[in-house]
């Protein structure tokens, strides 16, 4: 079994370039089903999740050419299938995103119940209620969900009970070829939503208001294809920014849109970091001693839940008491037990709140990457720990970080992949 071995105590410095956003490229690849001519997507990160959703498209009859680095050519002239198999969907929840595009393109979809990181129930009922509002018939059973719209989808107004990113994306895709106009109210506002809308519009769709709480989609009869450049990964960028903060480092992170990073930038400054914002980059200089901070995760533009674990690792070595309130997912403290093994002082309450008393030192030991972002937190903790940290279950990390070892090593970290 492969693992990461991190020897702590090294100050990180230098320049690192962020890859395209995992959470943007997955729905964009799923949306490629909508076009009848094919598309070219660039700034595609080379990740396990990307490989998985490309396999889903190939099961549907599309042709995917990934021969050029960081570029996908997707031939979507013909869609021969409408079912995403369990062995793919079970490994990655984002596979469920092909349901909206399949309903729009071929009028039916059958998807196995999704898997992915075990960070909470993340129910898909919001997606299904939206599909039903558009006129789809939903049938559940035997571990799969089947949706059909033999007479096509019809535009309507849909209010989301929670501003779910996945539901917003899925319904945008479904509504893009529905008859009439669809309005998604209480929509998610994440930058990845805007990126998907831009891609749909390049293919010939008509989406307005992405990035606000009300998205208007005028249905079109058909879509072609297009070329699109994926936005930078704000969570990968944030992880390297926190690495600089924790190691008293000086890291310039390139290919960053600082507008997407405002909550983290504010908290890093509050913790005593120097943060210099550029047009396409950000420089973070870590202080000699981090100050304690308080974070509360919220849907965008609030503090991102995907940065909670990494920032908690930072809080573990701050001078004083910090706190975390997790409001997005109900099972996102699995990294706490692993940090405690390293000597952290953390008390949780109700699975949603945590108090972190900073300690002078963390200690290297064997820990698990319990999910994608928890794995990143273990790497960060290992960077400052006394001794050697061995991280297992690193397949989680591979799902979201391209060339992590190479990039960290270039910054001065002592990290190896072994096994």
Automatic annotation (TrEMBL):
The residues that cross the membrane are none
- UniProt KW Cell cycle keyword: yes
Q: Which Gene3D superfamilies match?
A: Enolpyruvate transferase domain (3.65.10.10)
Sorted UniProt keywords? Cell cycle, Cell division, Cell shape, Cell wall biogenesis/degradation, Cytoplasm, Peptidoglycan synthesis, Pyruvate, Transferase
Q: Name one GO biological process term.
A: UDP-N-acetylgalactosamine biosynthetic process
Q: Entry's InterPro entries?
A: Enolpyruvate_Tfrase_dom (IPR001986), Enolpyruvate_Tfrase_sf (IPR036968), MurA_subfamily (IPR050068), RNA3'P_cycl/enolpyr_Trfase_a/b (IPR013792), UDP_GlcNAc_COvinyl_MurA (IPR005750)
Residue positions binding phosphoenolpyruvate: 22-23
Catalysed reaction(s) here are: phosphoenolpyruvate + UDP-N-acetyl-alpha-D-glucosamine = UDP-N-acetyl-3-O-(1-carboxyvinyl)-alpha-D-glucosamine + phosphate
One GO MF annotation is: UDP-N-acetylglucosamine 1-carboxyvinyltransferase activity
Q: What class of enzyme is it?
A: transferase
* Function per UniProt: Cell wall formation. Adds enolpyruvyl to UDP-N-acetylglucosamine.
PANTHER family reported in the protein's UniProt record: UDP-N-ACETYLGLUCOSAMINE 1-CARBOXYVINYLTRANSFERASE
Entry's family note: Belongs to the EPSP synthase family. MurA subfamily.
What is the name of this protein? UDP-N-acetylglucosamine 1-carboxyvinyltransferase
Species annotation: Acidaminococcus intestini (strain RyC-MR95)
């Amino acid at each position: 079994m492969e693992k990461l071995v991190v020897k702590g105590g090294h100050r990180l410095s230098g320049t690192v370039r962020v890859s395209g956003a995992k959470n943007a490229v997955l729905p964009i690849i799923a949306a490629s089903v909508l076009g009848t001519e094919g598309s070219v997507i660039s700034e595609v990160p080379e990740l396990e999740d990307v490989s998985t959703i490309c396999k889903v498209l190939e099961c549907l009859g599309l042709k995917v050419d990934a021969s050029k680095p960081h570029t996908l050519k997707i031939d979507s002239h013909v869609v021969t299938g409408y079912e995403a198999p369990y062995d793919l969907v079970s490994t990655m929840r984002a596979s469920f995103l092909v349901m909206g595009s399949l309903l729009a393109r071929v009028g039916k979809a059958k998807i196995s119940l999704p898997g992915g990181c075990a960070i909470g129930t993340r129910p898909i009922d919001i997606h299904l209620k939206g599909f039903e509002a558009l006129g789809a018939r939903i049938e559940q059973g035997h571990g799969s969900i089947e949706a059909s719209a033999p007479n096509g989808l019809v535009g309507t107004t849909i209010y989301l009970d929670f501003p779910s990113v996945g539901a917003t994306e899925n319904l945008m895709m479904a509504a893009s070829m529905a008859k009439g106009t669809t309005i998604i109210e209480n929509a998610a506002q994440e930058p990845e939503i805007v990126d998907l809308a831009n891609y749909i519009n390049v293919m010939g769709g008509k989406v307005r208001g992405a990035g606000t709480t009300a998205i208007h989609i005028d249905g079109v009869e058909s879509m072609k294809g297009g070329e699109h450049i994926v936005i930078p990964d704000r969570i990968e960028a944030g992880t390297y920014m926190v690495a600089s903060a924790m190691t008293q480092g000086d890291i310039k992170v390139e290919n960053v849109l600082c507008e997407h990073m405002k909550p983290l930038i504010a908290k890093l400054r509050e913790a005593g970091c120097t943060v210099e914002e550029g047009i396409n980059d950000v420089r973070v200089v870590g202080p000699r001693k981090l100050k304690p901070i308080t974070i509360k995760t919220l849907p965008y533009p609030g503090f991102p839940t995907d940065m909670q674990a990494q920032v908690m690792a930072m809080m573990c070595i701050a001078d004083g008491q910090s706190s975390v309130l997790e409001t997005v997912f109900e099972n996102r403290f699995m990294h706490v037990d692993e940090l405690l093994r390293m000597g952290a002082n953390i008390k949780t309450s109700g699975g949603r709140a945590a108090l972190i008393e900073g300690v002078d030192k963390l200690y290297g030991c064997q820990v698990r990457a319990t999910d994608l972002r928890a794995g990143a937190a273990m790497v960060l903790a290992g960077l400052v720990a006394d001794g050697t940290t061995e991280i297992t279950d690193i397949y989680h990390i591979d799902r979201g970080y391209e060339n992590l070892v190479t990039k960290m090593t270039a910054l001065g970290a002592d990290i190896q992949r072994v096994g």
